């Protein structure tokens, strides 16, 4: 049975709870991913922030006529104020099928992959699962 460790992304950009929302602007605008795990100084998962969370946090000031108001707002708001926590997680031994079921059941876009101490090992998205499912199957010898 195939495991998450085989398809997860291991090089994961992270942020901290104390980071300002302004620090995420460039990350999300330049990145091809939609989620950023939030970790503490030991690399333990604290939460996750998505592009949706980011824009939802900005919505109260988006119609402001003053760009400085928006800038001040995103500098003062911290990731901890808008991140999702707790987070559904898996470990690298979780079956891809079980991870896919979690993604579907809870309508989430990704699952952080953690070890037994909640240290971040990687991340797996619904796109990773779909890519795996669409791979041609290797013929097995009888």
From TrEMBL:
Keywords: CBS domain. Residues 8-64, 83-140 form the CBS domain. CDD domains: CBS_pair_AcuB_like. It holds the Pfam family CBS. It comes from the Bacteria. SUPFAM superfamilies: CBS-domain pair (SSF54631). This is Acetoin utilization protein AcuB. InterPro entries: CBS_dom, CBS_dom_sf, Diverse_CBS-Domain.
């Amino acid at each position: 049975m195939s495991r998450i460790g085989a398809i997860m992304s291991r090089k994961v950009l992270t942020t901290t709870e104390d980071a300002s929302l302004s620090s995420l602007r460039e990350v999300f605008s330049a990145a091809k991913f939609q989620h950023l795990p939030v970790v503490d100084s030991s690399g333990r998962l604290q939460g996750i922030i998505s592009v949706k969370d980011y824009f939802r946090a900005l919505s109260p000031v988006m119609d402001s006529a003053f760009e400085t108001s928006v800038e001040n707002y995103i500098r003062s708001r911290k990731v901890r104020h808008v991140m999702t926590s707790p987070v559904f997680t898996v470990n690298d031994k979780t079956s891809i099928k079980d991870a896919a079921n979690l993604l579907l059941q809870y309508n989430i876009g990704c699952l952080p992959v953690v070890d037994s101490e909640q240290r971040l090992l990687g991340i797996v998205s619904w796109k990773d699962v779909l890519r795996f499912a669409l791979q041609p199957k290797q013929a097995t010898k009888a």
